[in-house]
Structures are given as C-alpha cells and as structure tokens.
Design brief:
121 residues; alpha+beta; Arc Repressor Mutant, subunit A; 3 strands; 51% helix; 15% strand
Length: 121
Amino acid sequence: MATRETNPHFMNGVPELLILRLLHQDEMYGYEIVQAIQSRTGAVITVGEGVVYPVLHGLKRDGALSSRRKTVNGRTRIYYCVTPAGSHRLADLAATWSTLTAAIKGMLTGGPNGDAVKRPA
C-alpha cells in the first residue's frame, strides 16, 4: 500500500497555528514566514506562499493580525504582527492542538486501553 506524504484534511488549521506562533515572536513578511516554517520544523512541514498569503489575509480580516509597509534594502514589504485578538486565537489553537496530539499519542503508544503501534518485523 502506498503511503501519502500529507493528509490535507488533517493539516487544516496547522498553517494558521504556525503563522500565529511565528508572528507572536516577531513581525515577519510572507516569504520569511514560508522559510521559517520549513526551517523550524526541520522541513517536515513546508507550505508555499499560496497557502501563507490567504491565511495572512484571513487573519488580518478577522483582526488577529495587523500589518505595516516597511522598506528594507530598497524593497517594500508588508510585515505582519499579532494583535491581542490574535494572541487569544493562538492560545485557543495551541490548547486544542495539544489536546489533539496528546489523544493521538495515547492511541499510538497504547494508552490505558490498547497496545502500542509497532513497526512490522
């Protein structure tokens, strides 16, 4: 049976979580976010600008981000940063993701009601 590289349905919400986390630390522009996600996840998660920019625009529209134009080395870029509403959104998403990953880890390691998943010999 062929394995899939990613599960796009499972990844819903992950770019938003990662983008909010990055921007909670420092303001960044779009392509910088693309590079940071790849770098900080050890290239396990890679998203393109076609994913990042719609998420940025949606978060800004919802009031979770603010933006400003900034000229660096003669280039104008739009830098984004998290608003107080974005900080609350990040906290909610992080709590939900932590609960979800703990539940999945419990299932994979056997948890109280099952055997751990083992690689076939």
